[in-house]
Amino acid sequence: MSTVAEIIQARPTQPLFINGEWRLGSTGEVADNLNPATGAVCAVVAQASAEDVDAAIAAAHAARLPWRKLLVSEREAILLKAADIIAQRADELRDTLIEETGSTLLKAPWEVGYAVECLRSAAACVRQAHGETFPTCAPGQIGMTVRQPLGVIAGIAPFNSPLLLSMKKIAFALAAGNTFVLKPSEYAPLTGLKIAEVFEAAGLPSGVFNVVPGSAETVGKKLVEDPRVRMITFTGSERVGKLLAAEAGKHMKKVTLEMGGKSPLVVLDDADLDYAVDAAAFGIFYHQGQVCMASSRVIVEDGLFDAFCQAFTVKAKGVVVGDPHKPDTIVGPLIRPQQCVFIAEQIADAVSKGARLLCGGTYDGPYFQPTVLADVTPEMTIYHEESFGPVTSLYRARDFEHAVELANDTRYGLSSAIITNDLQKAMAFSELSNAGMIHINDATISDEPHIAFGGTGDSGFGREGGRASMEEMTEVKWVTIQAGKRAFPF
């Protein structure tokens, strides 16, 4: 079969990947894919019509039983080969992430490495779709549960970490014996197509994995409504996630959601100041703050607050902003240029209501300066809303109890962290925090492919990674075996 690169040489449009074939969209519609750093067109991508999405679903549906029946050793081998191919093409995938999403040289290679580890973790899970056995109350009878794949799963991926967050959905779905249709973000379709190249090279059977770039109105709507799609796994905005969950409910379709966050980092008086400043800076400025786990709220106990504000402001002013290709760049461009306007409005609202702007607050094109606010109150929109940019707010806590109160004062519940040398308070925080993930003496940003990743509240529901994914993406079947003859009542 032709590779994406070979088709591009003959035609300027990046094709769809359906049923093991690279094809242009049935309507001929295309969309420009822009480099966020320069605004230049880095690719022209075919847009899937409802007819194309139907073809992708049909292919996945037809492939589901043969893929499910494949020996676990064969599924495992394909996933491991895909991991090796990504490792071999690491530089190419790194460059795609830089060009397509504005990822820096700090972030892009890490994301590629995560994809490799994700596939290897999924391969390890192929042999671990465990059921249970248990006694029943009927004489001579034993019972068991077995896990079976759902069938066709659709993934809707975001733009911020498209390789990582797509692969986490795809790899474990395939490991569990499901087939998959991926709708990549409109801002990062190339990465989704690169994933298709990888699986094609790894020998994945036709139809098992399909990629259909396009609009939410066309592609997303069809994926949610089609009864052949048994599950939707979504990462993205709170607004879209809630709409998707409502629609999925109408069609009795399983769904997992990983949405936004206002993740708190709590710093207690006994913390090492320099370490806490470094953890907070990493937590908010990594990938321009375009991370659902970003430390957008830093809550510092009263005795350390003033010193922290001073030291953290100095740290933020020293963060290098600019070309994501340069090795010293920490903050690159925001993927969506309109996000700069949104963030600037949040900051203006906060300052007009009494917040102190310690540094930043301005932007040049897609580049937003690292920004630190203090004296933020609940009357300000930024207190409640996710910024999804390099902006954080510092809060003074009277004591540990007040810090916990502030940390939980949000409708989100994705990640939280605390820095302290007091083990009792650290463990108490892990119990009292409403977040789905709590990190002690670390930043709020942390992820590994084999752990159960996910949140509570408006951050969504369901878990991704390792055994959690295998459970989400399978269904439990109860089986009984009767020894001898059961005595029926009539």
Automatic annotation (TrEMBL):
Keyword vocabulary terms for this entry: NAD, Oxidoreductase
Keyword S-adenosyl-L-methionine tagged: no
Keyword Oxidoreductase: yes
Family classification: Belongs to the aldehyde dehydrogenase family.
List of catalytic residues: E258
An annotated Gene Ontology molecular function: oxidoreductase activity, acting on the aldehyde or oxo group of donors, NAD or NADP as acceptor
Record-given protein name: Aldehyde dehydrogenase family protein
Family annotation (SUPFAM superfamilies): ALDH-like
Superkingdom: Bacteria
Aldehyde dehydrogenase domain segment(s): 25-479
Matching PANTHER family: BENZALDEHYDE DEHYDROGENASE YFMT (PTHR42986)
